[in-house]
Amino acid sequence: MKISRREVTKILLAAVVAPPGLAASAASQAAGAKTWDVAVIGAGAFGAWSAYWLRKAGLHVILLDAYGAANSRASSGGESRIIRAAYGEHDFYSRWAMHSLPQWKELAVRCGQEIFYETGVLSFSDDSTDFVAQSVRTLERIGIMHKRLGAAELARRFPQIGLKGNEVGILEPRSGALMARRGVQVLVEELVRQGLDYRVAAATPPSSKGRLSSIATTGNETISAGVFVFACGPWLPKVFPELLGRYIQPERAEVYFLGVAPGDTRFSPPQMPTWIYKSKDAEAYGMPVLENRGFKVAVDKLSLPADPDTMDREPTPPYRAQLRAFVAERFPALKDAPVIETRVCQYENTETGNYLVDRHPEMENVWIVGGGSGHGFKNGPAMGEYVASVVFRGVPLEKVFMLGYKPKPGHLVE
Question: Among 227, 230, 253, which Cα is nearest to 243's?
Fold first, then answer.
């Protein structure tokens, strides 16, 4: 087989700048073997954006998902997610969110679909936590537009919220809501149009140690690649049970959409922003009425395990009871509002609340990407860019993402 000078140059460059797995993949392609530089397993927000950025780096990429991009079992499925910069005193994820937002917007323009709604995001808390004060200091330090709202102004601007007088808030006017399923699916569709290889098929978990040469799929296909990126969300503990069985714990989450009264605009933009409530004893979040789906509310007080494959996704009495109690207290006009739609999904929480990006300790060309921990979706574009940089360019890993990282006492998300 004759190899052109251009192909030889590509192989030599790959050997110089890429990790060993990618260099081997380039050589295999030149020799005529059917292989890819990178196989990404999982087409959620992290996996799809990783495939996007790896392809922008000039790599030959295949993307697989057992149920399809942003399916209803995935943590990237469902209708909407929050994108905001308020993260308390830690600015790492704030910076990533503001880096990701323009990319979500650009995707919407390229695909001609609504992906981002600039509703603003209101984070408010009572005096049991310093979350708002910490977030204000952080956003001031990194220069993100925001407005701090004291108790009086909070009550004046948002009378539809039941307040006790000891709450304060922070409003990010340029933040808002992402349409989750739509955003991931149009990204994958765009990649396929551009030539990405994409399969709806489950991959067999790797069992050998050392260098992984290939994986088998339920479609009776063998996928050979130089590097494998497992971005499987809540399935990661199943794929790597010994390594991640304790480190990532999928937890059940129930989301409710409430029907507002006819003509009542108090719970629609611009009167009502996307919102997050934090206190020592409870956390909740939601969104105004978007695309006529109802007022979205989720309360995070219960902690029950979740299996993304077999979990019954019907709402349950305990979650419904905590929803009703929270709504009666914080949105009293909706205390008797009918539930018009529900979603049951899961968080894949890591022990620290940080994301997980690390090389498998026993497989030299296998990377693990996940641990969205309930706040990962917004940062999909930044995550994909980061994954491409560590896999392709050998950029040093962020210690907070690595297996075995121990946060400072009292700190989860860093």
Answer: 230
User: Can you point out the beta strands (E) in 201-310?
Assistant: 214-216, 222-230, 248-258, 274-278, 283-287, 295-299
List C-alpha distances in Å: 310 to 305, 313, 314: 12, 9, 12
Task: Tell me what the mean pLDDT of segment 135-144 comes to.
Answer: 96
Instruction: Output the furthest CA–CA distance in the chain (Å, rounded).
Output: 78
pLDDT over 70, % of the chain: 90
Domains (ranges, CATH) in the chain? Answer: 5-73+181-247+353-401 (3.50.50.60), 109-178+249-347 (3.30.9.10)
For 112-194, where are the alpha helices, taking DSSP H only? 131-142, 151-157, 180-193
Q: How far apart (Å, rounded) are the C-alpha atoms in residues 309 and 43?
A: 16
Cross-strand pairs, 359: 367
Question: pTM for the full model?
Answer: 0.91
Token pair, residue 136, equals 């204000």
Tokens of 128: 């049991």
Which token pair is 281?
Answer: 């004893």
Which residues have a Cβ under 8 Å from the Cβ of 23 and sit 6 or more positions away? 11, 14, 15, 226
